[in-house]
Amino acid sequence: MKDNNTTSDYSKLELGEFSNLTENVFQPSPDFKLEGKKFVKDELGLTSSEISFNTMLPHTAIPLLHKHKENEEIYIAVKGKGQLLLNDNYVDLKEGTIVRVATDTERAIRNNSDAPFSFIVIQAKENSFEGSTVSDGYLIEKKPNWN
């Protein structure tokens, strides 16, 4: 990470290149370790979601299935190719693919290619969004000054 900026108005985190994400290690328990996963909720002070940035090396896989109690997940393929296993169904992922996974769906992910696979996962509470971004936003009189 290169720099962190946080004010009351916004927060900023520089993760660096996706290829360097493999230096991050997520270890939720002594017997399970996952390389290449970086959660950013705490560092950004997120209040409505969790986001992870991920890079999997070629021919690696998450060795377990999991579900969520409250959070749906959105998988966004950024670079390379991979595959989700969703309730015994294989779903191919490539750059630009976006998949929403409901809470009660069994899931795992793998990189079944010869190159690194980078993706983003967003977790948010299922069925909690009650508005639209268009109706939530509003214009103000002030114009941007890009000088």
UniProtKB/TrEMBL annotation:
Ranges where the Cupin type-2 domain occurs: 55-122
Any GO MF annotation of the entry: metal ion binding
Stored CDD domains: cupin_BF4112
Keyword Metal-binding in record: yes
Keywords: Metal-binding
Domain of life: Bacteria
Name of the protein in question: Cupin domain-containing protein
